[in-house]
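Project outcomes to date are best conveyed with an example. Our students and postdoctoral researchers have been running inverse folding experiments weekly, and each run begins with a structure described purely in tokens. The record below, which covers 446 residues, was selected by the lab manager from last quarter's runs and is presented without edits.
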């Protein structure tokens, strides 16, 4: 009989994830890939054998923040010279070699399209020379990124279906950091969704920087739209809830709108960024839609799904934004009454078209952002208050902070706190909403 070789102790991997949900998904996949190379994820950097930062470039001074974070790891590296430090994600893509130049203690820099090469890169580190891979390779990284061995998962999960963007909004780095739009083949997504449900997942959010531009190859050889993919996913019995994010208004096609009316599994929540309510600014942003065309899309969705919770993104103080333009944004918000929204002051991203344009004063941006956020907060509060007293279905997900309490997800987006037996985790229960906080609901089982 063959004797099993004693396994060496797993090496400790600390991963810090910044930014969007796609980075959360990518980090999970990198942890799995490195798991096969003998690494086990830990919660702190202190005694790690490898530190991996999965970075985001969307916010201001993103790269500077990463450089100072790296600086904080210097004492760890000094104390343990064979500690490996890696930088992944969009800052890695944007900065490349510069990261090694400014922080020579970094062992590897890897862009989002090269994650499948990470275990090989890690194996090659250690000779004091930093490795950089920011290619956009031909091969599909997901084919080479293993899933963790069959392990139980929380009831909700992300699944990347599409990456990159061809829209080139004048403020945005995504087309440069994530590259051109690429859709994964439909069958791979369906297989991954089935695998997730076998691990206990019931609520899947399909991810893509421009998810509704999805056009992956279907098993029949045709290009499938996102709606077609969702309709197919809805046939998986153990998958109860489907969501998708983030979308562009121009890619909300007829079938995707119709799906919101006729697919019970498609949740009544839609994140559809508009950025501004002024047509002049939308044009300057290269958004290729108007306020009116955007509102028309929303009208059509509300016609088939009246209770839909709408969410959006806004940028204030884009170059040339006047008080009148900003007022148009406030007017649009008054019309839509978003259930939830994200809003930002415009800030320049080197290499994007708007970066070199004359900028709006910082004070003006600050003041406009405060006014917009006050209005958005008021609408969010109204949406949540409107749910008080109603009975809604909630997917129970995890223990809450209080004894005997579970936290679940409504069909919309907010967490719901319920007193319920832990054995109900992973089930959908009906609850009556009793109260609304800023960002969550409290409810009782009915
Ligand atoms: N300045 C401010 N906000 C930005 N966003 C993207 N780029 C910028 C920028 N340069 C915002 C947009 C986008 C969201 C993800 O981040 O609103 O939809
Ligand atoms: Fe960036 Fe979204 Fe515009 Fe693409 S559609 S350039 S990801 S803001």
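After processing, the design step wrote out the following sequence:
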């Amino acid at each position: 009989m063959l004797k099993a070789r004693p396994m060496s102790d797993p090496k400790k991997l600390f991963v810090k994830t910044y930014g969007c949900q796609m980075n959360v998904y990518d980090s999970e996949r990198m942890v799995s890939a490195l798991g096969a190379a003998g690494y086990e994820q830990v919660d702190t950097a202190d005694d790690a054998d490898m530190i991996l930062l999965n970075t985001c470039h969307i916010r201001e001074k993103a790269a500077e923040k990463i450089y100072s974070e790296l600086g904080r790891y210097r004492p760890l590296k000094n104390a343990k010279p064979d500690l490996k430090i890696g930088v992944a994600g969009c800052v890695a893509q944007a900065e490349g070699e510069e990261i090694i130049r400014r922080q020579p203690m970094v062992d590897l820099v890897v862009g989002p399209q090269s994650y499948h090469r990470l275990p090989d890169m890690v194996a090659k580190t250690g000779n004091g020379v930093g490795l950089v891979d920011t290619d956009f390779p031909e091969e599909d990284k997901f084919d080479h990124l293993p899933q963790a061995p069959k392990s139980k998962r929380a009831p909700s999960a992300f699944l990347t279906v599409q990456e990159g963007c061809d829209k080139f909004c004048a403020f945005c780095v995504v087309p440069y950091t994530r590259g051109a739009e690429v859709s994964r083949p439909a069958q791979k997504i369906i297989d991954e969704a089935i695998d997730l449900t076998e691990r206990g997942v019931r609520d899947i959010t399909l991810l893509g920087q421009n998810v509704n531009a999805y056009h992956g190859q279907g098993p029949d050889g045709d290009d499938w739209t996102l709606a077609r993919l969702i309709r197919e996913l809805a046939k998986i019995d153990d998958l109860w809830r489907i969501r998708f994010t983030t979308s562009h208004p121009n890619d909300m096609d007829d079938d995707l709108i119709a799906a919101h009316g006729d697919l019970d599994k498609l949740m009544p929540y839609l994140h559809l960024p508009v950025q501004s309510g002024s047509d002049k600014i939308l044009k300057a942003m290269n958004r290729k839609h108007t306020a009116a065309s955007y509102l028309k899309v929303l009208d059509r969705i509300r016609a088939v799904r009246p209770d839909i919770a709408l969410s959006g993104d806004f940028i204030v103080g884009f170059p040339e934004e006047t008080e009148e333009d900003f007022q148009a944004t406030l007017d649009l918000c008054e019309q839509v009454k978003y259930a939830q929204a994200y809003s930002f002051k415009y800030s320049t991203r080197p290499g994007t078209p708007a970066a070199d344009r004359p900028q709006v004063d910082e004070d003006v941006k600050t003041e406009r952002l405060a006014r917009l956020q006050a209005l958005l907060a008021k609408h969010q509060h109204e949406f949540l208050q409107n749910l008080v007293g109603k009975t809604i279905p909630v997917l129970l997900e995890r223990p809450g902070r209080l004894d005997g309490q579970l936290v679940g997800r409504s069909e919309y987006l907010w967490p719901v706190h319920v007193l319920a037996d832990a054995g109900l985790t992973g089930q959908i229960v009906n609850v009556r909403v009793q109260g609304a906080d800023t960002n969550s609901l409290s409810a009782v089982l009915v």
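Confidence is low (pLDDT under 50) at residues 1-6. The first helix runs from residue 21 to 35. The training component of this project remains on track.
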